[in-house]
Amino acid sequence: MAIPKEFFSPESVAIIGASRHPGKIGHEILWNFARGFYKGKVFPINPSSERILGLPSYKSVLNVKEKIDLAIIAVRAEIVPNILKECIRKKIPAVVIVSGGFSELGPAGKLLEAELQKIVAGTNTRVIGPNCVGVFDAKTSVDTLFLSKSRLLRPPVGNISFISQSGAVGTTILDWLAESGIGISKFISYGNQADVDETDLLEYLANDRDTTVIAAYIEGLKDGKKFMRIAKKVAKKKPVIFLKAGKTKQGSQAASSHTGSLAGSAEIYSGAFKQIGILEASNWEELFDFAKVFSGQPMPSGNKLIIITDGGGFGVLAADEAEKQKFMLPMPSAKLKSKFKNFPSYASLKNPIDLTGDADAERYKIAVEECLKSIEFDAALVILLFQVPTLEKSIDDVIINLSRKYKKPLVACAAGSHYTQKLARKLEEHGIPVYPTPERAVKAIKAMLGFKK
Amino acid sequence: MAIPKEFFSPESVAIIGASRHPGKIGHEILWNFARGFYKGKVFPINPSSERILGLPSYKSVLNVKEKIDLAIIAVRAEIVPNILKECIRKKIPAVVIVSGGFSELGPAGKLLEAELQKIVAGTNTRVIGPNCVGVFDAKTSVDTLFLSKSRLLRPPVGNISFISQSGAVGTTILDWLAESGIGISKFISYGNQADVDETDLLEYLANDRDTTVIAAYIEGLKDGKKFMRIAKKVAKKKPVIFLKAGKTKQGSQAASSHTGSLAGSAEIYSGAFKQIGILEASNWEELFDFAKVFSGQPMPSGNKLIIITDGGGFGVLAADEAEKQKFMLPMPSAKLKSKFKNFPSYASLKNPIDLTGDADAERYKIAVEECLKSIEFDAALVILLFQVPTLEKSIDDVIINLSRKYKKPLVACAAGSHYTQKLARKLEEHGIPVYPTPERAVKAIKAMLGFKK
Questions:
Q1: Which of 42-61 (A) contact B at CB < 8 A?
Q2: pTM of structure
Q3: Which domains does chain A carry?
Q4: By CB count within 10 A, which of A118, A256, B57, B433 is most buried?
């Protein structure tokens, strides 16, 4: 049975274990729905039946007369089975179990989790979790994350969807995306996958119009054969990027204590991902780096890269990485160089093009536009040392306009503190990914090339 | 001839090419000395002889009656030779030539640079540059960087010294360090090294009491034999970390256009560094990552690592990287685990120790303290998902106090936006390096282990 849309766009939500005490998980989640931008009905469920955050609360979902689309369970593990039974009796299509204390704890927890599986099997209810932080949907403001917005920012609406077996790994990526002004469609932390697994989520996201790129952090696959069958189809429709954790012996042991996953052999996973057409990130930073390049930029049609910089050393580092990643760095032709005849004599018109430390927005405009326009290059890496005194803040608009005008991938590199980050954020808000190092920028363009069909 | 101390602690400075126009290089540099915390005398040198930033200016250094310790030359390349002759006649011991337009431009520029070398040879003047941003000394406020403080922050006083052939690569690391609250002793961007080269600088820093770790970005060595002879001695005294750029064919071509360097073979360089005892960073981020771990933490006495986390996924990623880096992750003994008897049953007392998403500062205190105290571990990686609702801000003080109390290396990992960064900054100000990913944190500890004598 496919995942119901009620996980992401429920008309009504019950928070079971809703609490009046700030800092408690059941309080933070209720706050998100009651005080955020969520537009549907909200039912706090709590044995004391008090009003919480101004809303009447109920002893059980069975006491709520109206229909409930989504239930979020945040109570101690032992009573989850009974609560889940009530949700099923209430015919709630979507249930998120945030509570931990299941298979990640060993044999006793595994038994409790098996009980959940038995309860839900054959019903019309689907369960995400247990041992997860659940769902965030930027469009509908469904937000089961128990991390308060004062500590963890939420990203704006965008086209990346992200599934994560780990709540911590997942939510910190949300925090990073939000800080960069990069949008997200759906985020799902799915924990121990007692019912809904990564493959169900992939399948849902493949058919989701708001999602154009799927990123995933996984520790172990629940059903390898099912995954292979479905993921092949998904990867044909949209870019899919996976970070597989627990690839070493010690990492695999840690995964077993974390989400009860059998992590399996690194080689088998990597081989399977390659066969399916899934792009594998080699570390956590890369998962983030790759997701954002697919989110905002068109695919390159070849591997001829132009590097444009105002800092020579960055150009050298970028050229080193470009060669490692097997890019071609063709020299600009005489015809192309003739467009740069007004540049100062000390500018270097090779590849990288070094506009040098007194570059201004106009010099960048000419260099970037002529290179994007030319058939000599398939993609551009624009390194912006924003700190040089001659570079006006209007450089952002120049780059944004050129990126819109030409249908070639443009990736930026900019490193620095508050001044740089402010200008970088504006670029990212407009779909131009910005990386803090030349190496990471080159690898991101390479990721797109790897996905080219 | 050794480098004179006047590059770093001059009693008087002349800025040749000082300008009244904000945005001009000669203005920005003068501003740093005239309006910053520099305590010595400042002489603007400018043919128009006007007052600039309230200071009387002079047509030439020869018109200044008092002694001049340091001259900074920021005029167009063609007139640099004559200006340099005047500096020598004035017996100025230290000269920084910021101007570009020399060997990085090819044959004509090489001739001009050779002229500089001829002028300075056999004199009592030493020259840094040309084609560089020069010197920053946090203690004396010598600051020849032409990037304004509103765009590029300056770090506080610390014990890292950093030499860089590239101005852009160097200054952005200053910007990062400043943002993190990490201090620096001396920064030198040395450009085309017409006179002073990386070996001279290494030798100076080896004897500098304010420097405990040396980081370097280099494109090409000027004199390989001299370097081998001196660097061997330096690396015995202090940790030295190198990032070698221009290691590929295309990167090497870029380096030649940038600082006129012959970059040479990657294997030869790596082999030499290893022989000397220099730690090689494999990318730019690592140079920064490694410098800060040596700056604040003692060396580990062995490879037994404990990972402590409140986010399971981070623990898995850290364990994966620890195994790749050949760390041992011993399980805590029964005796050690008995200290954690008050932890909740769902906490995982293996390695990683997972304090889980409801950890508080007290739980961290017990776990970190008992592990640092125990002979079972040589180093601790403390992963702090600051965003969880139960973790108080006082966690910073807990970690800072424990790091001071026990003489074992403690490295932190924390990822997130403003809330996380604020707490991370406080740790870094107190010498505890914080990395945004578990992988980078593990590699930093490994770097120290690699340096162990």
A1: none
A2: 0.93
A3: 1-133 (3.40.50.720), 152-296 (3.40.50.261), 298-451 (3.40.50.261)
A4: B433
